[in-house]
Amino acid sequence: MNRLQQMNNTDKTQAASGQITSASLLMFAGVIFMLLMTNTLTAQFYNGSNMTFGKNRVQYHNTIWSFYKFEDFDTYFYLNGKELALYTAWYTQQQLPALERKLETVLDDKMQFVIYNSLNELKQSNIGLAGEQQYNTGGITHILGNKVVLYNDGNYLNFEQQIRAGIADILITQLMYGGSIGSQIRNAALFTLPDWYKNGLISYLSEDWNSEIDNRLRDGMVSGRYKKINRLSGEDAVFAGHALWRYIEMKYGPSAITNIIHLTQLTRNVQNGFLYVTGLPFKELVSEWYTYYYDGYARLEAINPDETLPYRYRDFLSYLRPVVSPDGTELAYATNNEGRVVVWLQQLGSGKKRKLYKAGFSSGQKIDNTYPLLSWHPSGEILAYIVEEKGSIWLYFHNLKENSTQKRVLFDFQKITSFSYAPDGQQLLMSAVRHGKPDIYVFNIAANSHRQITDDFYTDLDPVFFNGMRQIVFSSNRPGDTIRQQDTPDKQPGQFDLFSYDFARHSPVLRRVTETPLANETKPFFRLGGRLFYLNDGSGFQNLNQAFYDSAISYVDTAVHYRYFFKSQVVTGLTTAMNDYAILPSDDKVMYTALSKNRIRFFRTDIAAYLRHEPEQIPVSAFMQEKMTIGQAAEEKTDALPEPVAQSRRHFVAAMREAVNTDTLAAPNRQKQGGFAIEGQSRMPFSGLINKDKPSLMAASAEPKRRNYNVEFYYDQLFTQVDFTYINYSYQAFSGGGSPIYLNPGFNVFLGVNLTDLLEDYRISGGVRMNTNLINNEYVASFSNLQKRLDKQIIFHRQSIEQSTETYLMRTHSHELYYILSWPFSESLSLKGTGIYRNDMKVYLATDQVNLKKPNLYEHWAGLRTELVFDNSRELGMNLYSGIRSKAFAEYYQIVGERTRNLVVVGFDFRHYLKIHRNFIWANRLAASTSIGNNRLIYYMGGVDNWLFPSFNRTTPIDYNQQYAYQTLATNMRGFNQNIRNGNSFAVLNSELRFPVFRYLLQRPINSDFIRNFQLATFGDIGTAWTGLNPYDPKNSLYTSTIENGPLTITVEVQKDPIIGGFGFGARTLLLGYFVRGDVAWGVEDRRISKPVFYLSFSLDF
Predict the structure, then answer these.
(1) Which residues, 6 or more positions from 255, have their beta carbon under 8 angstroms from its beta carbon?
(2) Tens digit of pLDDT for each residue in 748-803?
(3) I need a labelling partner for 1053 at 20 to 30 A (CA). Which of 150, 651, 656, 988 fits?
(4) Up-side HSE of residue 479: CA atoms within 13 Å toward CB?
């Protein structure tokens, strides 16, 4: 059978499979005018190494959403979130005009606050979940909306900070890029703000300077980590940026902040904004800023802990909540390594430790360090710990003697923030959140019931029993010594003090343990002997204090009357801030965790040594000295937002507080969770929510109407691309092997749009690729439903492809339908299944009488595909990752009604990205695949993905007896042309070093995308493609060469090493919004190095 006959036979075997793909483009007039790259949303090896992976969200509970409608914003919430929604509305109405005045702008469009009851429930949502990977970086506009996502962590001060940060983010984005879609399209590609600029500015506008920020900055400054601000990312960029904006305000005045922002927007240049306002080049300004803070911190005499314990310390590894057993022999603590949580139990004598519990994956989402919580039973035989699993809160009891573990679900709480055992061992004392309120509860273990102690919106934390079970001491930011039941939100005071509740008499009157207007007291711990330990940040560093219950004569009449009070004393006077601590009962030492050199470390310090210090000997940070000098008691002047003035905006009145002025604590109601009714859809006029006379108060009678949330779609992405490729959804039909692949449709334009709803549960995308002749246009439409745990997607694709041979010209009209189901096991691991149907209509074009008489051919293909996908990678920059991506898959295709026409493909792709230093990475990839069945898939090895001018090696033999139906590339194999090896199986190993030159070296903001994304790469490839059982099988077509000369056909056996390799170097960058790669590589075949091959391609690397 000659090649033409083989091609005619395989024309009837075209099948369809795959997920969304597109390819690369080049436009030039004389010389290259514009470089464009492919938009590839690919699965399997349909398009070389361009393959999709992706993370997941796991929904454990269904939620019914409601919302309140206001003039400038809407608040969206679900069960038990009503109070949070009302509080958000009240607080936003105060803060929005203040932030507008601060930034000298006005909100263009309504904001949407989406409120989750906890971080755990937010992490189950689809908000922020990226779609399939975009290998095409150009021609895509991301539409920025006015959505603010909030969650309750049990601390209303943190909740308020999230609200301010969300408003500031929207206003800054509006200033820089505009509010309309048109302005965003114009401005999105013009300039990019560094992380420290925008995120630091948001932090500066949303959070006052405090001891936590001060200590984080001190650690970064003293260690030298913050000296090069443009190299910072993540939280480091936030803290350093916050400090820079604060420094500018202190030196140049508040108006300088607004002027810099507006000049940055006008000039599209970060450095010019600072230069025109401060008169200093940016490098000199940063040097001044660094010197100012560094000198201030360096002048303070450091008092360090006695001993650093020998644990394994790493970046992103946090040590949490050490607790020592009552007899002092066992230490329990937790670790959190980027989402991977472990509970450890260690013997203090021998140092041996073991894992009691582990869960979680590194997913790239916000790390929740509020769990696990740990507490020892008074007997020391049971360790209790609380974790969040699968959307629920679980209480574990580990029995040390029996080495057994029991667990139960805590149904009635949205979050537990801390807990401890009662002295009788039968009850747990908890600070927990119900209906949005962070209150104190006593939980009866045997009865599995609870009793509520406080019932208000003040933040109550860290309760412990004191003086037996007579008193409960806890930390709270309540302003008064007495409390009452409170059903409406109230403004949160800033500082935390310790309070004592008389649990024995259930007295409604609280007793103050501490009263420090400039300091926070948290995490009390009672030790036998009447000593109450707690943390205090009055020196600017969170140190250990202790309090004694004492008495003094109040007055004498017929008898002596005493007054009782707490007397406090500083225990440690360190210049490191304690996070968590545990008292060692045997040797009077404290073990604690603290930040040091950007890592959370374990320390141990002798308590007795510090008790000898006089108060004046304790070092005080410059920040606290400034607070003491100014004499601020309730709020700080530095960085504080101005009080709102009821002029430009009206203040709504919806379920606000009563003044707290009674001396009684009302008995809380016992309530159970249940459903709630959704009210009607009629709009309530905003004027009914206005109180012009009392803008800070809300009347409960004016509560806004709760409305159903109905799905509405918003623009998410717009595509406008020009290129020369198809949207490849499947393997390409086998064309005989005489020319490079893929088939080229010529010049075309792709226009597309992605839509999503507010909660990002539903996604719609569609597009058309218009050919110049307007005949072979492509159409694609997709709908995704991600609301529940089982994700569903439907894709329709219509394509027309022309194929020519020596005897005919054929146009194939393909209609493909895909139904995809995805079941996530975790945020990183999922199992996908796809049902495939394809209808092909093949039309012979009337090039002559013979072809005119040929009938049209129709084929109906059906197929199934399954994929197991793992992805815990994190993006460090464009084309730069850390973590792992992997996929194993199997596909089956069958012509409907023809048993002898089928194809099976199996394979895997494993990728590992190792961060060497900052954003300098080492990327490795191992991939392999094989095809079996009556029809086969041929893999052409050689070249790179989306090679602009591909060449095909015609000397490598192709075994046409394999009945190939489809073809694809096996890349990367640099140093060779396509088809240096071929077969129905392949395996390849790729290794690359990627170095972002200017981002790594420069110490100034980089405005140019070309410079910022410029990377140098060095690489090596090794692999092969073969027929037969293995590459060294004698049946491998590589070992056979066929020579045809007239009537003679000569078959020659040749000796070749099937394994080939390549090495070289290259550069890649972003040009006109598209990622361009240029590589030079040398191939190695049969131990000989070939001449170099140059590749120009348009795609991200693997």
Answers:
(1) none
(2) 677 888 899 999 999 999 888 877 777 778 888 999 999 999 999 999 998 887 77
(3) 988
(4) 13
Omega cis (within 30) before 972: yes
Write out pLDDT tens, residues 561-593.
Answer: 666 667 788 888 888 889 999 998 876 788 999
Average pLDDT over all residues of the chain: 81
- How far apart CA 506 and CA 822 sit, in angstroms, is 53
Q: Is the pLDDT of residue 100 over 80?
A: yes
Structure tokens that stand for 21 in this block: 């793909």
User: CA-CA distances (angstroms) from residue 242 to 99, 161, 214?
Assistant: 16, 14, 10
Out of 3.30.70.1350, 3.30.499.10, 3.40.50.720, 2.120.10.30, select the CATH number for domain 307-607+615-620. 2.120.10.30
Per-domain residue ranges of the chain: 3-54+712-1097, 191-300+621-644, 307-607+615-620
Pairing of strands 111-116, 73-77: parallel
Q: How far apart are CA 1062 and CA 897, in angstroms?
A: 45
Short-list 787, 709, 676, CA closest to 66 = 709
Give me the residue label for tokens 């041929």: 938
Residue of 621, 737, 771 lying closest to 302 (CA atoms): 621
- How much is the pLDDT for 687? 32
Alpha-carbon distance of 98 to 641, in angstroms, equals 7
From residue 636, alpha-carbon distances to 94, 196, 541 in Å are 18, 24, 17
- Sort 267 into a burial class: Cβ within 10 Å, 0-12 / 13-18 / 19+: middle
- CA 235 – CA 739 distance, rounded (Å): 52
d(CA 667, CA 485): 7
Task: For residues 787 and 711, give the distance between their C-alpha atoms in angstroms, rounded to a whole number.
Answer: 11
CB 709 within 8 A of CB 67: yes
Q: What angle do CA 32, 729, 39 make, to 5 degrees?
A: 35
Report which secondary-structure segment, H or E, holds 1000.
Answer: helix 997-1001
Contact criterion met (CB below 8 Å) for 769 and 727: yes
For Cα atoms 285, 291, 295, give the angle at the middle one, nearest 5 degrees. 160
719-735: string of b/e by CB count within 10 Å (b at 16+)? bebebbbbbbbbbbbbb
Q: What is the pLDDT of residue 704?
A: 87
Largest CA distance in the chain: 135
**Fold agreement (3-54+712-1097, 307-607+615-620):** no
Query: What is the Cβ-side half-sphere exposure of residue 1098, based on CA atoms within 13 angstroms?
Result: 27
- Residue range 190-212, pLDDT digits in tens: 567 888 999 999 999 999 998 89
Per-residue model confidence as pLDDT tens digits over 130-153? 765 555 455 556 666 789 999 999
Q: How far apart are the first and last CA of the chain?
A: 39
* Helical ranges in 442-566 per DSSP H: none
Query: CB–CB of 920/994 below 8 Å?
Result: yes
- State the Cα torsion 1002-1005-1010-1013 to the nearest 10°: 70
DSSP state of 368: -
For 300, the enclosing helix (H) or strand (E) is none
Asked if the 3-54+712-1097 domain carries CATH number 2.60.120.1060, the reply is no
